[in-house]
């Protein structure tokens, strides 16, 4: 097709990987999403999920979703602005506001839509958005849609952020946006340090807690709470697609801001609300995350056990200290080959290449859930050791 020809000529990677028999994407799961899943009729250990709480197959959440479907139907057929607001959407907003400790919450249909629709809307032509170079793609799409001036700072580098803040005209609005836990490499932002700089330069702070909630802080409230600065972070974003075992996302902030966003944020207004099932599932997950702290404790036990294991093996794991463990390979084809070989050996991991990471930072992303047992983690580590050795990556 003429339309795509130039792009197809330039981007040959998927075709090459397919020809080499190592294409690693769209592997269909045909079972419940436990730590063990079925792919191509075979059971494999799942170390590629973002559901850190492991609640995705919890019977109580499934029941809540089924009950809501019975009561309200399968979809919402409209924007929250018009016919798409249910009482359970309002209930979820109120519960999340209380949980995160903010005046108000808005629920979007995806976390991607939250970042897109918030980052693009809050600042004007004369204002500034300061962003970490490793922020999530949805934040970057939001920036691209904004008319503001954009200043990128080096990854988790407060000196670099301060230099950028110094470039801003003092009387203009400045929005600093960062992930709390970086999604591919599992390292954590110094939100406390960012908040201090924001105070010094009169900036607003927005933190994406997609991978922080369910993992950090009391009741899984996230990194901002764990670092004791939630009250000073102006906007806290979260998603229901990871620890909440559902789909959708939220922004928690002051009423003044939500009132503006409810009338101007296009990815909120011009799309349908989350389904009754997704909404009820998130509500139930929120309850369980607070009532069952032992899940979070076990997640950290498994995380520390795996971190120690990978370090002892000699794997290069960067600066992670979270259930997201990057195993650096630094070569696309080896990364794809390892992904295939591990799947054949019964272990599912995610290959991460550019643009999700810088081209030289290609990695295997290993992630943990609160439902993994120590035996499963041990088995995963042993199999990874075998394959990484075969590729000459570890002694
Ligand atoms: N922010 C971050 C840091 C993410 O990792 C993701 C999902 N990969 C999103 C936002 C988007 O969330 P959702 O899946 O709810 O669209």
Q: How would you describe this structure to a colleague?
A:
With 395 residues, the protein is of the alpha/beta class. It has 2 domains: 129 residues, Aspartate Aminotransferase, domain 1 (Alpha-Beta Complex), CATH 3.90.1150.10; 233 residues, Aspartate Aminotransferase, domain 2 (3-Layer(aba) Sandwich), CATH 3.40.640. 43% of the residues lie in helices and 15% in strands. The strands form 3 sheets. Strands 3-9-8-7-6-4-5 form a 7-stranded mixed β-sheet, with helices on both faces. A 3-stranded mixed β-sheet has the order 1-2-11. A 3-stranded antiparallel β-sheet has the order 10-13-12, covered by helices on one side. The termini are far apart. The site of 4'-deoxy-4'-aminopyridoxal-5'-phosphate (PMP) has 14 residues, from helix 5.
> What low-confidence regions span 5 or more consecutive residues with pLDDT below 50?
none
Name given to the CATH homologous superfamily of the largest domain: Type I PLP-dependent aspartate aminotransferase-like (Major domain)
Overall, the morphology is globular
Sketch the topology as an H/E string, one letter per element.
HHEEHHEHEHEHEHEHEEHHHHEHEEEH
How do the strands of the widest beta sheet line up side by side? 3-9-8-7-6-4-5
Kindly estimate the percentage of residues that lie in beta strands according to DSSP: 15-25%
Count of all domains:
2
From the alpha carbons, calculate the radius of gyration and give it in angstroms: 21 Å
CATH-scheme architecture of the largest domain: 3-Layer(aba) Sandwich
Q: How would you state the average pLDDT, rounded?
A: 96
Return the CATH class of the largest domain.
Alpha Beta
**Count the strands?**
13
For this structure, the quaternary state is: single chain
Main sheet properties: 7 strands, mixed
CATH fold-level label of the largest domain: Aspartate Aminotransferase, domain 2
Tally of contiguous helical segments:
15
The proportion of residues forming helix, as a percent range, comes to: 40-55%
| Distinct bound molecules | 4'-deoxy-4'-aminopyridoxal-5'-phosphate
**Class computed from helices, strands and strand pairing:** alpha/beta
First-residue to last-residue Cα separation? 48 Å
Keywords: Aminotransferase, Transferase
Protein name: Pyridoxal phosphate-dependent aminotransferase family protein
Organism: Muribaculum caecicola
């Amino acid at each position: 097709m003429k339309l795509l020809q130039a792009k197809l000529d330039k981007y040959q990677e998927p075709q090459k990987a397919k020809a080499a028999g190592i294409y690693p994407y769209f592997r269909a799961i045909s079972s419940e999403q436990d730590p063990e899943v079925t792919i191509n009729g075979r059971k494999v250990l799942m170390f590629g999920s973002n559901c850190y709480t492991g609640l995705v197959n919890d019977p109580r959440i499934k029941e809540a979703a089924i009950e809501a479907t019975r009561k309200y139907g399968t979809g919402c057929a409209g924007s929250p602005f018009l016919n798409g607001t249910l009482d359970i959407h309002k209930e979820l907003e109120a519960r999340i506001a209380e949980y995160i400790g903010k005046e108000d919450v808005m629920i979007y249909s995806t976390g991607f839509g939250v970042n897109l629709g918030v980052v693009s809307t809050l600042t004007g032509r004369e204002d500034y958005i300061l962003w970490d170079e490793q922020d999530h793609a949805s934040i970057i799409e939001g920036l691209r849609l904004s008319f503001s001036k954009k200043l990128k700072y080096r990854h988790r580098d407060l000196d670099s952020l301060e230099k950028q803040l110094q470039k801003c005209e003092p009387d203009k609005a400045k929005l600093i946006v960062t992930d709390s836990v970086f999604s591919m490499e599992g390292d954590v932002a110094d939100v406390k340090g960012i908040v201090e700089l924001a105070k010094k330069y009169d900036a607003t702070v927005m933190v994406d807690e997609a991978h922080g909630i369910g993992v950090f802080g009391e009741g899984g409230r996230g990194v901002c709470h764990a670092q004791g600065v939630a009250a000073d972070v102006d906007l806290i974003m979260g998603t229901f697609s990871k620890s909440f075992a559902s789909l959708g996302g939220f922004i928690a902030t002051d009423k003044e801001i939500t009132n503006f966003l409810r009338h101007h944020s296009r990815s909120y207004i011009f799309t349908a609300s989350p389904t009754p099932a997704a909404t009820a599932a998130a509500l139930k997950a929120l309850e369980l995350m607070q009532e069952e702290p032992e899940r979070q404790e076990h997640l950290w036990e498994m995380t520390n056990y795996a971190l120690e294991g990978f370090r002892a093996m000699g794997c290069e794991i960067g600066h992670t200290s979270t259930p997201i463990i990057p195993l650096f390979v630094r070569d696309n084809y080896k990364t794809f080959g390892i992904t295939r070989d591990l799947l054949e050996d019964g272990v599912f991991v995610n290959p991460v290449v550019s643009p999700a990471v810088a081209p030289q930072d290609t990695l295997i992303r290993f992630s943990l859930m609160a439902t993994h047992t120590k035996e499963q983690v041990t088995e995963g580590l042993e199999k990874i050791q075998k394959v990484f050795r075969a590729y000459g990556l570890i002694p």
